């Protein structure tokens, strides 16, 4: 029996939190999915969305855990880069699609169209 790497646990937790937060906010109409792949998965309902979202991070994490003995330092470093990258993309992506970046104005962005089409102000994730 071997333990899962702490970096794998952290990255999986961040991804799960993102999934739960997105589903919750979409469920109450306070947000919509900005990622076109995940937005398409929403056409199959929340279950389809969650399945696709889980598959996109659980499968790679599982593979990395299986092969981690081949090059443990590289896998650990890759997971750390993944954690930083995921948080950066989530943070700056949310700011970008919600028009909160001072140097960028999303003219004709899907955020404005989607929010105006549902007549609700909302955040995008």
- Residues in helices, as a percent range: 55-70%
Q: Please give the count of helices.
A: 5
Structural class assignment: mainly alpha
| Number of DSSP strand runs | 2
> What is the element string, with H for helices and E for strands?
HEHHHHE
Largest sheet: 2 strands, parallel
For the termini, the CA-CA separation is 37 Å
Using only CA atoms, what is the Rg?
17 Å
> What do the pLDDT scores average to?
84
The 3D shape can be described as: globular
Task: Name the poorly predicted regions.
Answer: 109-121
Strand order of the largest sheet: 1-2
Beta fraction: under 5%
Fold and architecture overview:
- With 125 residues, this protein is mainly α.
- The protein is built from five helices and two strands, in the order H-E-H-H-H-H-E.
- A two-stranded parallel sheet has the order 1-2.
- Helix 1 (6-27) packs antiparallel against helix 3 and helix 1 packs parallel to helix 4 (72-97).
- The protein is globular and about 45 Å long.
- The N and C termini lie far apart (37 Å).
- The model is unreliable at 109-121 (pLDDT under 50).
Question: Characteristics of this structure?
Answer:
globular; 125 residues; mainly alpha; 5 helices
Brief sketch in words of this structure:
The chain has helices at 6-27, 36-41, 45-67, 72-97, 110-117; strands at residues 31-32, 123-124. It is mostly helical and 125 residues long.
Outline the secondary-structure elements.
Elements: H1 6-27, E1 31-32, H2 36-41, H3 45-67, H4 72-97, H5 110-117, E2 123-124
Helix pairs in contact: 1-3, 1-4
């Amino acid at each position: 029996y071997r333990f899962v790497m702490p970096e794998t646990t952290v990255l999986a937790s961040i991804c799960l939190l993102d999934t739960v937060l997105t589903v919750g906010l979409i469920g109450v109409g306070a947000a919509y999915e900005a990622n076109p792949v995940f937005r398409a998965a929403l056409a199959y309902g929340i279950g389809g969305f969650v399945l696709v979202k889980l598959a996109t991070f659980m499968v790679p994490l599982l593979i990395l855990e299986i092969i981690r003995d081949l090059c443990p330092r590289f896998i650990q470093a890759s997971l750390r880069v993944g954690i930083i990258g995921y948080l950066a993309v989530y943070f700056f992506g949310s700011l970008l699609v919600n028009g909160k970046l001072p140097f960028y104005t999303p003219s004709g962005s899907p955020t404005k169209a989607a929010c105006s089409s549902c007549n609700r102000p909302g955040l995008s994730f």
